[in-house]
Design brief:
The chain is an alpha+beta fold. It folds into two domains: 5-169 and 341-370, Gcn5-related N-acetyltransferase (GNAT) (Aminopeptidase), CATH 3.40.630; 177-316, Aminopeptidase, CATH 3.40.630. It contains 13 helices and 13 strands. Strands 1, 2, 3, 4, 5, 6, 7, 8, 9, 10, 11, 12 and 13 form a 13-stranded mixed β-sheet that branches. Strand 2 (54-61) and strand 3 (67-80) form a beta hairpin. Helix 3 packs antiparallel against helix 10 and helix 4 (116-129) packs across helix 5 (146-154). The protein is globular, with a radius of gyration of 22 Å.
Length: 371
C-alpha cells in the first residue's frame, strides 16, 4: 500500500474527531478504553493547559481519504537528567516524568487492522522526518502491539539511541471457564479473602453488592474519595484529576460504559469500585474501602470477589486489574497469572542527551556486573 497520505491535525480537528476516531478504533487492535477519543481528548482538555504543550496528532489516510491510522502525540520542552534541555515528543495520555496527571496504559498507534504494518511504518517514517523533537517517549507502550514490533524490528527512527526506560506488568483475567473453576485455581488464602470471608460479613447485617446507575456520577466520586481518604489519608482524585475522571465518566455513561459498584452493609456503603466496561472487557480503575473495617475481612479482596463473579455471570471476556501494586503486596498476581508487558521506550536523537544516557546506562550495567 503506497498511497498513504499523512497530515497533522490541529485542535479543531481533534475536537470534532469523535465519530471518525471511534470508527477507526473499532477496526484496530488498540485498547478500546485508553485509546478512545473520550479518554485521550479528556486528558488533553484537562491536563494540557500549559502553553508549552503542542498538539502533534499524526493522521494517516488511504487513497479514498478514509482515516486508517493515528499517532496521538504532543510536544513539550523538557530536561534530560535535569541537565540537558530537549524537545520531547510523547503520547497524549501521559506526561513522562512531568506533572502528575492520570495514567494511561496500553498505548500504541491506532491503525486499521487491514493496513497495520504499512501504516505503522508510514507513521514512524513521518515522525523520523520531523525536526522538532530530540526525544520520543512511547510511555506505557503495549509490547504486544504492532507499533512496538515495528519500532523495535525496523528501527525507522534513525541515528537515535533506543532505551527501555521502564517496564511493568499489567494484569488481566481471561474469563474463559466458570467462576467456580476460577475460585479453585486460587491459593487457599486468596480464596479465603476473596470468597469465604463473605460469611463473616453476612453475620454482621444485610449485605448487598450493587452496580450503581450513573445518574449522579459526582456522588460516586465523593464516596470513592471519602473511602480512599480513610485508607490513605488523602482523596484519590482532586483538582484536575477529579475533573478528568468526571469528564470521562460522563462521556462514557452515554454508552453505559462506566460502572460503579458498592458493597453495602445495612444500607451503609463500605466499599466502592470504579470501573469501565467496554466490549465485554472490565477495567478496574480505582477502589475505595475502609482498611480497618474488620481484622478478618479485606474489603478490597471481597469486593473483587463480587465484581469478578458478576463479570462471569454477565458474559464478560476479561477483567483487567491493570498495572500498579497494592499498599502492602502485589495482590494482582495472586488473582491471575496473565499479564501484558508495558514499557516506556525512550528514543533519543539529541547528540548530548544520547551521550549522557549512553554513559549512564553503561555505568549501571557495569555496576550490576560487579555486584
Amino acid at each position: 500500500m503506497n498511497n498513504i497520505k499523512i497530515e497533522l491535525w490541529d485542535l479543531v480537528q481533534f475536537n470534532n474527531a469523535q465519530k471518525e476516531w471511534s470508527n477507526l478504533l473499532e477496526r484496530s487492535r488498540s485498547d478500546k478504553l485508553f485509546m478512545s477519543w473520550e479518554w485521550l481528548h479528556s486528558w488533553w482538555d484537562v491536563f494540557a493547559h500549559s502553553n508549552d504543550y503542542t498538539l502533534q496528532i499524526i493522521a494517516a489516510y488511504n487513497s479514498d481519504n478514509t482515516l486508517i491510522g493515528l499517532a496521538p502525540l504532543f510536544l513539550l520542552p523538557a530536561k534530560s537528567k535535569k541537565i540537558i534541555k530537549t524537545r520531547r515528543l510523547q503520547f497524549i495520555g501521559n506526561c513522562w516524568r512531568g506533572p502528575v496527571t492520570m495514567r494511561t496504559e496500553l498505548l500504541d498507534f491506532i491503525v486499521d487492522n487491514n493496513y497495520s504494518m504499512k501504516v505503522n511504518q508510514a507513521l514512524f517514517r513521518y515522525i523520523n522526518s520531523l525536526t522538532n523533537w530530540d526525544e520520543f517517549i512511547l510511555s506505557d507502550l503495549n509490547q504486544e502491539s504492532d507499533t512496538y514490533a515495528v519500532l523495535m524490528k525496523e528501527r525507522i527512527l534513525k541515528k537515535s539511541y533506543y532505551r527501555n526506560a521502564e517496564e511493568y506488568e499489567s494484569y488481566f483475567l481471561s474469563i474463559d471457564t466458570s467462576f467456580d473453576d476460577f475460585c479453585k485455581s486460587l491459593g487457599k488464602n486468596t480464596r479465603l479473602k476473596l470468597l469465604n470471608r463473605r460469611k463473616i460479613l453476612e453475620k454482621m447485617g444485610v449485605v448487598k453488592y450493587i452496580e450503581m446507575d450513573n445518574e449522579d456520577i459526582e456522588s460516586h466520586f465523593k464516596l470513592l474519595n471519602s473511602l480512599h481518604t480513610k485508607r490513605w489519608g488523602i482523596p484519590v482524585f482532586e483538582g484536575d484529576r477529579l475533573k478528568f475522571n468526571n469528564t470521562v465518566a460522563t462521556l462514557m455513561a452515554k454508552n453505559a460504559s462506566v460502572q460503579f459498584s458498592v458493597i453495602k452493609l445495612d444500607n451503609e456503603s463500605i466499599s466502592i469500585q470504579y470501573n469501565y466496561v467496554i466490549d465485554k472487557h472490565v477495567y478496574n480503575i480505582q477502589a475505595g474501602f475502609n482498611e480497618n473495617f474488620h481484622n478478618k475481612i479485606s474489603l478490597g479482596y471481597l469486593h473483587f470477589g463480587y465484581a469478578i463473579e458478576s463479570a462471569y455471570k454477565t458474559g464478560m471476556k476479561y477483567y483487567d486489574f491493570l498495572a500498579g501494586e497494592g499498599k502492602n503486596t502485589q495482590y494482582k498476581s495472586r488473582l491471575t497469572d496473565s499479564s501484558h508487558t508495558i514499557t516506556s521506550m525512550q528514543i533519543i536523537r539529541s547528540k548530548y542527551a544520547k551521550s549522557l544516557y549512553y554513559t549512564y546506562d553503561l555505568y549501571k550495567k557495569l555496576m550490576k556486573t560487579n555486584i
